Amino acid sequence: MPLIPQADAFFTVDDDTITLKPEYIKEKKWAFKKITGTSFSGVLGFNHYNSPFQIWMSMVGLYKSVADPIITKTGQVVETKIQKILPKLLNHKYFCYDPKEIKYDAFRDNPVFGGIPDAEPTDDGRTFTYEENFPMVEIKTSSIDKFSWTTKNGELSLNLDSSGLPKVTTNGEGVKRSEWIDKEDNVIVPVEYQFQLSLYLYLRNAKNGVFVISFLNLEDYANPEGWEEKNHEVRMVDFSIKDYEGFVQYIAYAKNWYEEHVVKGKSPKMTKNDQTWLAQQLSFLKAN
């Protein structure tokens, strides 16, 4: 996630926090991001990949995430294909958003939380049918194999073979899928995704959700348009917020976090790892 050009001119450092300069807040506040399903677990400190500080840096626009184009395209194409077969899988009609039409936010009236559910149950494309206990859908894709990555300027870069396909790590065949499956062949959904769906269920005041997960072959990354359900393992995992009162406390924490850090422009405290990461990012910024 590289820092934006001249990022170091837009904040001051005070021990273990950084504070945005007033002129930066005045100019960029309109573009500050809300807490979405993707960032929610990171705000709470439950994300395995990004700390609350790194999430904050992204939300206030100081650095931009760089997603791998092959992984991103494959995921988007397969997700769209899965959306089209949801009525068959779940025996109900589902509405899927055009992100551009809703300006990438299905919860625009909420000042703190936003994002886009992958699919919502409907009878007519306009009215949701959550009161009939049809589930909200969150679609996930994962490679079956574990891929090889290289760190360049603090960013992960996917290693490709001579044909342009992702390289599988040594002894990596089937490893990625195994991380999702327990000894009883049950799918274990990563905690980041559980918080994502929980947030969207909360915002819709809905009870039930379902994860629809497709495990992808190496060939899918060369031709995602060729994905078909009959040739792939597709698993569905029912989901609901088990401890609603406890979850409401997470919501309250996140609201306060947003007010204290995003609205006021002062970062959460940096851990030692955050401080090392920031120093590296500033070094890369100056070098370029």
Give an overview of the whole structure.
The chain has eight helices and eleven strands. With 288 residues, the chain is an alpha/beta fold. The strands form five sheets. The protein has a three-stranded mixed beta sheet, with helices on both faces. The chain has a two-stranded antiparallel ribbon with strand order 1-2. A hairpin with a 2-residue loop joins strand 8 and strand 9. The longest helix has 22 residues, at 69-90.
The gist of it:
By secondary structure, the protein is an alpha/beta fold. Helices cover 34% and strands 17% of the residues. Strands 7-10-11 form a 3-stranded mixed beta sheet, with helices on both faces. The protein has a two-stranded antiparallel ribbon with strand order 1-2. A two-stranded parallel ribbon has the order 3-5.
Work out the number of β strands. Answer: 11
Strand order of the largest sheet: 7-10-11
Number of helical runs?
A: 8
Structural class: alpha/beta
What is the CA-based Rg, rounded?
Answer: 20 Å
| Distance between the first and last residues' Cα | 14 Å
Series of secondary-structure elements, N-terminal to C-terminal: EEHEHHHEEEEEEHHEEHH
Helix content: 25-40%
Low-pLDDT residue spans: none
The shape, in one word, is globular
Rounded mean pLDDT score: 95
- Strand percentage lies at 15-25%
Largest sheet: 3 strands, mixed
